[in-house]
Design a protein that fits this description.
This protein is α/β, with parallel strands linked by helices. It has seven helices and seven strands, in the order H-H-E-H-E-H-E-H-E-H-E-H-E-E. The chain binds S-adenosyl-L-homocysteine (SAH) and magnesium ion (MG).
């Protein structure tokens, strides 16, 4: 990993107002990754590759990351950045909409990081539950969305996103196969650890 290039990639992303993972959020995720030393990570929402590059430092020896980005320009820039950071052997980018790509994936992942369209979080969770290893961790960023999710913001123009984030939180909290913590770090981080019986196709409705 080329740390100098990583710092440049971060700086440029911040200048372009790309919503890359916040430092305090990264710290929490890094702790989980350090503990797990995952073999396979799935990321939904690559942007320009910053978080994926950071996460790649915590993979075990032959570990790999799959990351999905629907914006063509960003996917292209991510590919360049991953090369610059010298981690191209560890990260595979799927350029396309996660709503279409996720159902085609068949492998199991040790860690799944959800960081894309907030209105799709319930769908992403359904797919994550299908794809997660039985002792894996599903992490979702931005679940508190600037405080809108816990506040009384029903008239806010982002109400579809807010409704879906609330649904995500309700599902991970109520699902008896998951042990979930919601942290106020960054823009809100949901950490859901799968219990042994986490292998199923569908999210229970209770
Ligand atoms: N994880 C990145 C930041 C991701 S920002 C980092 O921390 O560095 C969110 C990204 O998700 C945006 O680039 C957006 O284009 C992408 N995105 C949103 N909805 C998506 C979808 N349905 N499928 C794939 N990518 C999506
Ligand atoms: Mg985010």
């Amino acid at each position: 990993m080329n740390l100098e290039k990583l710092a440049e990639i971060k700086q440029k992303a911040l200048e372009q107002h790309i919503p890359i993972i916040m430092d305090d959020t990264l710290e929490v995720v890094a702790k989980i990754l350090l503990e797990k030393r995952p073999n396979r990570i799935l990321e939904i929402g690559t942007a320009v590759g910053y978080s994926a590059i950071c996460f790649s430092a915590y993979l075990n020896e032959n570990g790999k990351i799959d990351t999905i980005e629907r914006d063509e320009g960003r996917a292209r820039e991510a590919k360049e950045n991953i090369k610059k950071a010298e981690v191209e052997s560890k990260i595979n980018i799927y350029a396309g909409d996660a709503v279409e790509i996720l159902p085609t994936l068949q492998e199991k992942y040790d860690v799944i990081f959800i960081d894309a369209a907030k209105g799709k979080y319930p769908f992403f969770l359904k797919q994550a539950l299908r794809l997660i290893q039985k002792d894996g961790v599903i992490i979702a960023d931005n679940v508190l969305y600037k405080g809108y999710v816990m506040g009384d913001y029903n008239k806010h123009k982002q109400r579809t996103a807010v409704r879906n984030l609330r649904e995500y939180i309700a599902e991970v909290t109520n699902n008896t196969n998951l042990q979930t913590e919601i942290l106020e770090v960054g823009d809100g981080l949901a950490i859901s650890r799968c219990q042994l019986a986490c292998q199923f196709g569908d999210v229970p409705n209770n």
